[in-house]
Design goal:
With 229 residues, the chain is an alpha+beta fold. It has one domain (2-223): Alpha-Beta Complex (Nucleoside Triphosphate Pyrophosphohydrolase). It has five helices and 13 strands. It has helices at 20-28, 47-51, 109-121, 173-176, 210-223, and strands at residues 2-3, 62-71, 78-84, 95-96, 99-101, 128-133, 137-138, 143-152, 157-158, 165-172, 183-188, 195-203, 206-208. The strands form three sheets. Strands 2, 3, 4, 5, 6, 7, 8 and 10 form an eight-stranded mixed β-sheet that branches. A three-stranded antiparallel β-sheet has the order 11-12-13. Strand 7 and strand 8 form a beta hairpin.
């Protein structure tokens, strides 16, 4: 059993100068999932840039959901992230949000995200208050992921499923949302032969990249001056 108040996160970023909690609430309150293909985003790309690849999107991607857990710490909000187990078939060893495919018994993406968070890391949904949703993100692995954003009240304990999760850690939201910590890299994009500029967010000896960094960048863009994702 892991106490989430223990020092699993290497705090960086200093005091927050922006009330990101208020920004998130103001931006996402009352939002609902949008599954139309014209709303899908490629992780890390804007809506305009994502639209260029729309004709290459899979015709029937697998619906999935992730929980974007924003922990309400006294010295500023953090993002709770997982490092996936190395033996997984998809995204092995990568930094990710808790989540997975939406099952037939799940009433909604929110239900799926909360179920997966409980199964993967033991996060009890009693500690989670859902705020809203980001646009669906389309992944190269064939999933269409609905990011479900929620605030997590401290006091929870985590119990990791070692078959799926190797570790968890927290990153200050102010660090994630600081453009000085964004590292632009050119990567070959699987929906075509062109290279695109995507964002990595190095944090200590870890590197947040791919779909996870892309979803965080979407949240950041939405929260900054009402920018489009």
């Amino acid at each position: 059993m892991r106490n989430a108040g223990a020092g699993s996160d290497d705090r960086q970023g200093g005091p927050l100068s922006v009330d990101w909690r208020a920004r998130i609430v103001g931006t996402l309150a009352d939002t609902q999932p949008r599954h139309a293909v014209e709303d899908w985003l490629v992780p890390g790309l804007s809506a305009q840039d994502s639209a260029q690849y729309r004709s290459l999107f899979p015709a029937a991607p697998i619906p999935a959901a992730v929980l974007v857990p924003v922990v309400e710490r006294e010295d500023g909000p953090t993002v709770l992230l997982t490092q996936r187990a190395t033996q997984l078939r998809n995204h092995a060893g990568q930094i990710s949000f808790p989540g997975g495919r939406i099952e037939a018994a799940d009433a909604s993406p929110q239900a799926a995200a909360l179920r997966e968070a409980h199964e993967e890391i033991g996060l009890d949904e009693r500690f989670v208050a859902i705020v809203g949703y980001l646009p669906d993100h389309i992944l190269l692995s064939g999933f269409r992921v609905t990011p479900v954003v929620g605030f997590v009240r401290p006091g929870f304990e985590l119990l990791l499923d070692s078959r799926e999760v190797h570790d968890t850690f927290e990153v200050p939201l102010g660090f994630v949302f600081d453009p000085a910590n964004h590292r632009i890299r050119r990567r070959r994009f699987g929906f075509g032969d062109a290279e695109v500029e995507l964002c990595d967010i190095p944090y200590g000896d870890r590197n947040i990249w791919g779909a996870t960094a892309g979803m965080l960048l979407t949240l950041y863009r939405l929260c900054v001056a009402g920018a489009n994702p």
